[in-house]
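Comment thread on ticket #2218

A.B. wrote:
> Attaching the input chain for the structure job we discussed in standup.
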Amino acid sequence: MTHQLKARATLAAVLAVAASLLTACAGTPATPASSSSSSPTAAAVSYTTPRTMPEGKGSTADDGVFPRTVVHFQGETVLSKQPEKVVVISTGQADALLTLGVVPAGSTAGEGADMVPPYLFEAFADKKAELEAITYVGSRFAPDIETVANVKPDLIVMNNAGKDAAALYASLNAIAPTVATQGTGLYWKQDFLLLADALGKRQQAEQWLTTYHADAAAFGAKVTGAPTVSFLRKNGDRMRVFGVASFSGSVAEDSALARPESQRFTDQTSVDISSEQLEKADADWILYGVQGGNETELTGQSLWPTLKAVSAGHAVEVDDDVFYLNVGPTAARGILSSLQKTLG
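C.D. wrote:
> Ran it. Output below, let me know if you need it in another format.
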């Protein structure tokens, strides 16, 4: 546990530095998509995770220009002025807002998770009081409409994933202008850009991604020996390995890290495995998370000591919130920092 605490303290420090720099500058089936890169040297590379908004989405207005019309995944929304009170219907969207220097007025929480994950308190420690004042508006799949209305937002941001999106959009849009992103870890970059567009901060988000992509590529270029990296999660009775089309997998892809053959799939976010299939989690390095923090749920598996990564001392417990539960830019920076610490 001492190693774990040190690792988390290091991650917290890195996240805090990343957040201050940003302020100063101020699972679902998926089909692989080729998208443009912010780096000219990587223009010919095909990425599973889209790096730009889909054609026709967003607005044509420059940052800070209002009114603006934003085309999104439930239609289009006119924003007459820059939003000041924003309600988000996922913690990934809260991460995105904070990365852009905006504290949500209201937010939901995932099952068994905090409304504001610890990593966001650590990364944005200077906003602790504002984070504690965020209004809880219910489940991310079924937010409390009356509570959302009581916040009196001037913008609501939701996503389409895992819910009756059309019905929810109709209810929320009756309260305030609402913008719908696509959702899931595969689309975190395009969703970040779309959310930023609604705030009048799209160009700021594009610059954030440009810097992040450059840093990830520079890190990956320094990794020698092409070690394979595995992503493994245990939550409740479910044990999963994550493929290229996952949030953590996207950061590995951005860094050009090799994945074990069992995790090179791109047609879904993750694959459930049984205790008898634990070898599918093996690689040169295993980065594993356990919801609730009881690592023995994995390390106590009978096959755990037989994995080559475990034998080599290359099985590393990571922050479950950062790697597997949230899908936002600050979490992506946290994953990149952990990979740099582990493989650098």
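A.B. wrote:
> Thanks. Noting for the ticket: The radius of gyration is 19 Å.
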